[in-house]
């Protein structure tokens, strides 16, 4: 028999997810490869996906920017709606090459926490084949999030090795981009999120610019 008023039982609250660090590489990766994203005109993107390698017309002497974040690529290419960016590619590359680029990279901008002075940064910039840039990660509506993800610029030796040595496979993910975008427009963000590539924290090598330590 009860001798007092019932005391409501509070449901246990799930622990809050850990906060994302300000900068982190997140990527779809295996033990041997990492997937990055680029967008091109169909004239370049379609043959690249068909043949699994970049065509001769792909300019190896120019800097190219690769993005491990699918949603950042969607922000950049407007879900494949921007001119000359209608074909979104997932490029699976060798992890050894990716790590080599990170170890041989310089920040794309001067940072007093990383460089003793602006001239030292400029000297480093001229002598490295890769550039690291940290940009706000994006959500499904392509709005900026309060933490940053990697863009990696490859030039000279790094660009040539990316195109001709590191590339393992190239997949046209334009249909996936359109499907996810359609679900977002329909308000089905849960369905859209379920289709996103599984991007996990990537163990960046020691010395990756802008991280200060291994992520």
Tell me about this structure.
The protein is of the alpha+beta class and 215 residues long. Helix content is 31%, strand content 24%. It is built from seven helices and nine strands; from the N terminus they run ββαβαβαβαββαβααβ. Strand 6 and strand 7 form a beta hairpin.
Topology:
Elements: E1 26-27, E2 33-40, H1 42-51, E3 64-66, H2 70-77, E4 87-94, H3 95-103, E5 105-107, H4 118-127, E6 130-138, E7 144-154, H5 157-166, E8 167-172, H6 174-185, H7 189-195, E9 200-201
Parallel strand pairs: 5-6
Antiparallel strand pairs: 1-9, 2-4, 3-7, 4-8, 6-7
Short overview:
This protein is an alpha+beta fold and 215 residues long.
Keywords for this structure?
single chain; 215 residues; alpha+beta; 4-stranded mixed β-sheet; 3-stranded antiparallel β-sheet; 31% helix; globular
Mean of pLDDT = 91
Globally, the shape reads globular
Give the percentage of residues in beta strands: 15-25%
Distance between the termini: 58 Å
Instruction: Provide the low-confidence segments as ranges.
Output: none
Q: In this structure, how is the largest beta sheet organized?
A: 4 strands, mixed
The percentage helix is 25-40%
Strand count:
9
Work out the helix count: 7
Given helix and strand content, the structural type is: alpha+beta
| Largest sheet strand order | 3-7-6-5
Instruction: Give the topology string: H per helix, E per strand.
Output: EEHEHEHEHEEHEHHE
**Roughly how many Å is the radius of gyration?**
21 Å
